[in-house]
Amino acid sequence: MNVSPDFSPSIRLMKPYFLLSGIAYVASMLLLFFIDFSSDILDFSVVGWVHLYMLGFVMMAIFSAMAQLGPVVVETKHHNTDVFYYVWPFLVVGLLFMLYGFFFDITALPYGGFLVLIAMSSYAIEFLLTLKNMRRKTAITKAMKMSNFFLLFGIVSGIAMALSFNNKLSLNAQDILPLHSFTLVVGFVVLLIMGISIILIPMFGNAKRISDNVFSQSFFILSSAVGVLILSYFYTPFAYIAYCIATVAIVLYLRQLYMMYRSRKKVVHDIWAKSYYVGFISFFIAFILFILFLLSAKTLFLKVSLWLLLVGFIGFLIMGNFYKIIPFLIWFEIYSPLIEEMAVPMLHELLPKRLAMFQWYYSSLGLLLSTYALLNDNEMLFYGGVTLLSVGGTLFLIIINNILKRKL
Known about the structure:
The chain has 408 residues and is an all-alpha fold. The protein has a domain of 136 residues. It is built from twelve helices and no strands. The longest helix has 37 residues. It is globular, with a radius of gyration of 21 Å. The two termini are 30 Å apart.
């Protein structure tokens, strides 16, 4: 792999993304205390929470991670790193407008949506221009490229929904909702995680990387599922076909994960591995619950499935990867040039392991309690679990902030 240090933006440029991601996670957990436990998943307060979590925590985390990892994967430098100076302010202001729209005044939604579109488009276009100069074309780089197209489609469909809520477009928002949610959550986030995990698991987990042909199976099938789901806007039964196709892709991906798990040369149960254990167990359970929802049409299964997908799968994978990525970036930028001049800390010394383990315990127990509470309609236990998740999120924010403050 031919990689230069100049390929990725500086840690100082990306520092706001890491910190804002942690702040948004804590804020989203605290916001749950102000949402009625019995609210339907389509209630605007719940939808507002999902947008805070996805745009504030998940998207900020993806932008920060992909800004660093993307050029390394494709072996080329960014087309223009200056765009990252502007993405996060537009995203933050747009998110605030959207939250105000969901909780107080629906007329603010289109304004927030357009600001978010500017942020997302800036990121996606810059990344696509970066991919244009890539030296290696693999199924993973194709997945990265395709996910950005799904990202743009998802944001535009979201704006269409916001305009329809305000009677600016004569469209049925309920018909657009599956397109909006599926293209963003599955087409962008899950597809991107699938591709990057094929790289990070062998890198951090001492596992053997699967062949490009093996991963291409799940990638192409999942991309096809998203495409078929988009067509369901014109013919509703296509949605069920899309869910079936996506199920095949997820099964293949789980098989690929198992292949990598079995190939590990040295088993190390560090904080990264433990976060991945929780994340992928949550993903598997969420997948089963979603199948049960399709078979029974019980919204409880869908609610718990989405909770595990967002907080269990995506949340734990992001936190686990941050514990690997941020210390490496700090060490590489600050300490690696001084190796021959002075004693520098080892890479593993930059992460406060004990505090990270406390975070993992609080968050894991919080996820377990809240999931059990949702399944059993226990409001008090749910907020007990959310309290533990809030404590875990606060510890996570403290940890990444302390790492990012490291100086000589």
